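Example record

One chain of 486 residues, shown exactly as stored in the release files.
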Amino acid sequence: MRKIVLLVFVLYTSAQASPFDCPSLGDGDSLSQTQLLERLTHSCRYDRLERPITYTEKGSRLPVDVYVRWYIYFMQNLEAHDLQFKIHALLQFRFLDPRLIFRKVSPKRSQPILGEANLRDILWMPHIFLANERDSSIMGTNEKDVLTSVSLDGTVIISSRITATLYCWMSLQKFPFDEQHCSTYLESWMYNTSELILHWEQKRPITFNPDVHLTEYVLKQIWSNESTINADLNDLRHGAFAGNYSSLSFTVQLTREVGFYIMDYFLPSMLIVGASWVSFWLQADQAAPRLMLGTSTMLTFITLASAQGKTLPKVSYIKVSEVWFLGCTLFIFGSLLEFAFVNTIWRRTSNVDVKKLKSKYILRSTLSPRLYETSTFRQHSADSVSMTASSVSERPHTAANYRNYLTKPNMQTGGGVATEETRKFYEFDIGLMEERGDENVHENRNSWTTLTPQEISQWIDAKARVMFPIAFIIFNVLFWTFVYTF
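Predicted structure tokens for this chain:
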């Protein structure tokens, strides 16, 4: 019995209150902004969970058109090790909600109704998110940095000052001579393209504050794009709802300023490599200073390169900076190897017989003197049996009067002692030439010379003083051509 009475009371109360549940919009000019909005958004007229609905002439429902504008206050330098960048921006949405038109109910009002976050909270809002965000938030307080505007024709504008950290998948193959393209993506979350479509504003959709300045990059270009994202059950960005979703994006092209890297990395690298060549002017037996110079330049360069590389992510591909690092390391390491080579030769006790004072003969005799002399002797002995007069005259020889401050004739006293095999070869070969009446017998007699190990070491150092700088110049030409051409 009590339940029946209670039910009758509820029905009676509802019937009595129903005429007052939907407040009138008459005489809207006499209402305040708050009162007018309360009546416009009353539950009998407005459901903030339902999107604005418009129809075509044929009666089919149209999607909501949401127009977007960005204004960038601040942009932080790209953080290469985290592949991200940070922006402070004004994000603005504009759409039409026919349920909020008050031109007819309040004809004397000429200005839009303005509010902050509390006004936004009672209106329907398009659920739009940053697809490549790492973090985002409203700048300042929610009340302070959200501006809501409702115009006479039902146009709603929501402006929010936000700070966002966004991912930028950087390509560092040409670091530090690289260009980066960083994009910002806006996508609809709840509504697919049959219910909501995103558009860029026609005039100045993306604007940067004129005072925005990046210390490491130069902003070259900006372009925007409107597209549709197809989501399926493998893509959970849209709440696991399959369908086509509207998307907006804008991309900034950033070129890295290389002045810092030239002054703090490349020029010091060149000076360090050049310093490693000082060892070529030190005598080969001065092991302590040459070794200390080589190792100190190597360690200094490795420290310089590692300090620069700490700010970069550990990527699998080779960067241009690493090519420079490897090239300079090889030149410094080459100077250490050259010192080890000439020091080993300097400590030899026997002289070396050289057929001619040319690089290939000196190096071959230095690397394997006994093998070279023996093979030469055997070759000449075999050729002498069947040699004709014309072939004898075509044999390479050195002018009789050729002398060099690093060489001494091996037949002279004090000029070094020739090996026994070499002397036998001289006597055998010259004897044959005398029998045939060869006019070049005297030139051939003085063609072979003897070099001391110390002389060979000094000759190698003298060549290194020229070859290393020339090779480094060629490396620089190839490197900088690649950097600014490809």
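Notes: The domain at 28-256 is CATH 2.70.170.10 (Acetylcholine Binding Protein; Chain: A,).
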